[in-house]
Amino acid sequence: MPISWSPPSSSWILATGFTNLRMNFLLETLQLIVLSIYYNVEAIIKCIIPTKKKDVTGEIVLITGAGSGIGRLMALEFARLDVALVLWDISQEGMKETARLTKEKGASRVHYYLCDCSDKSEVYRVAKQVKREVGDVRILINNAGIVTGKKFMDAPDSLIEKTLEVNTMSHFWTYKAFLPAMVDNNHGHLVCISSSAGLIGVNGLADYCASKFAAIGFAESVALELLATGKDGVKTTIVCPYFINTGMFDGCSTKWPTLLPILDPVYVAKNVVNAILTEQSYLLLPRSMNLLMALKSFLPSKQSVILGKYLGAFNFMDTFQGHQKKRN
Ligand SMILES: NC(=O)c1ccc[n+]([C@@H]2O[C@H](COP(=O)([O-])OP(=O)(O)OC[C@H]3O[C@@H](n4cnc5c(N)ncnc54)[C@H](O)[C@@H]3O)[C@@H](O)[C@H]2O)c1
């Protein structure tokens, strides 16, 4: 008996398409729910049981702004881990001192280079020199930073531009210089030292906040680009600390030190290095910043404003002196 075949009707195609779409929706939603439960349980377990730290022996670690503050202190933390340290700063004296201190702590390979990270061509030139003289950087810590400390309308254009060039644009240039080798080997770690001022706007810090928000947006997007291309061996960490007692924000005060303490630089450096070794994607310090961020996302805006006032965010910068205090 001859078999007859007729093409499916358009209503059948539509109905099948709709059923497939519904199936896909159900399957993907189920997958989302199961994985969400899994990752939440994993996060809770990680809070209770300390995560295993990765071995960085022999890795090349580059820290920008390593001539003082937490840049120097992170270098000192890495000095114990048998890595090759590459220090960048605009202060030759500062780097010399960091190099001396890291050697005292046991670092055997320390290299330092004068490099203004805000200058794209200088970053590319010095990056080539590092590759030639030391090798491929595996852990890149974008830490160099500056603050104007002036109200937006009082800040000279040149300082606003410089703030964005140092705190944000330099991250673009260092990534361009060092990321390709990490991607080729599917191995590396990108660290963005931002700030709590990159999560919440602050009265008197418009240019600084803009530069730190932008640094987070950039780092987060590159992290997703890496995941989307399957380069999951290149890890990323974004760090957002509140005020640290390094001199950068000298004169600023915190209203409720128990809730939001001015952070000890050694504590911050230790926590950043720990976050890198345990491959944490985000580090907010103090931990109470996590609660503030959660509140910011759902509180009515007027309530956020009174909460900001209560926490002193309107007056943090009133007594700002910054590094000037030391220079005078
Ligand atoms: N101190 C704080 O309260 C605080 C809070 C949150 C985030 N941060 C961030 O932490 C990072 C480190 O700050 P810190 O407190 O150690 O300050 P710091 O002033 O002690 O250190 C900054 C270092 O960056 C260097 N630097 C400045 N411009 C540079 C450039 N163009 N190229 C290369 N190096 C340059 C400086 O010479 C200095 O050694 C900064 O990105 C800062 O924004 C600081």
TrEMBL record:
<dbReference type="InterPro" id="IPR002347">
    <property type="entry name" value="SDR_fam"/>
</dbReference>
<dbReference type="GO" id="GO:0016616">
    <property type="term" value="F:oxidoreductase activity, acting on the CH-OH group of donors, NAD or NADP as acceptor"/>
</dbReference>
<keyword id="KW-0560">Oxidoreductase</keyword>
<comment type="similarity">
    <text>Belongs to the short-chain dehydrogenases/reductases (SDR) family.</text>
</comment>
<protein>
    <recommendedName>
        <fullName>Epidermal retinal dehydrogenase 2</fullName>
    </recommendedName>
</protein>
<dbReference type="InterPro" id="IPR020904">
    <property type="entry name" value="Sc_DH/Rdtase_CS"/>
</dbReference>
<dbReference type="Pfam" id="PF00106">
    <property type="entry name" value="adh_short"/>
</dbReference>
<dbReference type="GO" id="GO:0005811">
    <property type="term" value="C:lipid droplet"/>
</dbReference>
<keyword id="KW-0520">NAD</keyword>
<dbReference type="InterPro" id="IPR036291">
    <property type="entry name" value="NAD(P)-bd_dom_sf"/>
</dbReference>
